[in-house]
Amino acid sequence: MLAAKIATRTARHRSWVRLASTATAPSSYKVVVIGGGAGGLAVSSTLSKQLGKNEVAVIEPSETHYQQPLFTFVGGGLKRFEETYRPTSDVIAPEAQWINQAAAQIDPDSNTVTLADGTKVAYEYLVVAAGIELDFAGIKGLESAIGKNGVASNYSPRYVQKTFEFLQGVKEGNALFTMPATPVKCAGAPQKIAYLADELFREKGVRDKVAVGYYTALGKIFAIEKYANAMNEVARSRDIGVNLFHDLVEVDGATKKATFKVLGSGPQAGETVTVPYEFLHVTPPMKPFDFIKSSAISNAAGFVDIDKGTLQHTKYPNIYSIGDCSSLPTSKTAAAAAAQSSVLKYNLLNQIRGTNVPAAEYNGYTS
Fold it and tell me: pTM value?
């Protein structure tokens, strides 16, 4: 019923939004925000109220906005998927202009963003909050196996409901949970679902027949030592096997086998290990979007190159960035984006108004 209501509301909003995004939309804005996720919405909502109607544009291709932190609870059977999303038209501030397309190119020298259909949108100031791209194709065999063969991922709205469905069917064998070598958003999520699965198996009375294994490409269970020590103790107390320096490189859905490449400098480094599974939760590799990586605003790794304090670009002073697509050396989480947004808004509004005050600085808070 809820899904039907949302679909109806989306269709109702879609007609005027698409019209506003094409025929009647101006092609130049005071501020253009790329991305309608948590960071982009936090910035555009405040700026559009401060600067006035149609001074701020949000470039966002998806017609559905997902509250992604809830996906872990959906995968663990604690929330309904229908509770995780709303139409994008409902969450973008009414004072802002929604451009319902994807960004394809950024030209910081001409102050323009080219859209997927070739249209150019000009800006005086640009905020890049595009997030990070899931790379399911980066693991051999994963695209053909996921969503069936006991393979799921809480990182995608397409597959998150399969997690709980498949977990309920596990009676014995190996339940594997992976973490890639790349930067990821919400680095705690791969472990959270392992703990929830462990609890589910215990409730069903099959935990003694199911071996739960956490396979991470990293050299420790979590980047911050203080929390890594606590998590190691949790894993030990729940009899969850922790396998460090194991990077998932192939999934064979037909035979239910997962192959890992051993990283690091140990005696097995460079070798591969194949493990049979009954259930496999994959955290996919992630990467910067090509339109950022190929632009002059990116650093060598493909992320928007910004000052870690002011969030202002290191070369182009009218460009800012927050969240997963930025070069900030902190965890990529919604909590981090929320903290960053207040700094960005303060600094950008003062720049627009010509206010001569010291810049606010992001203190690195994440979660």
Answer: 0.91
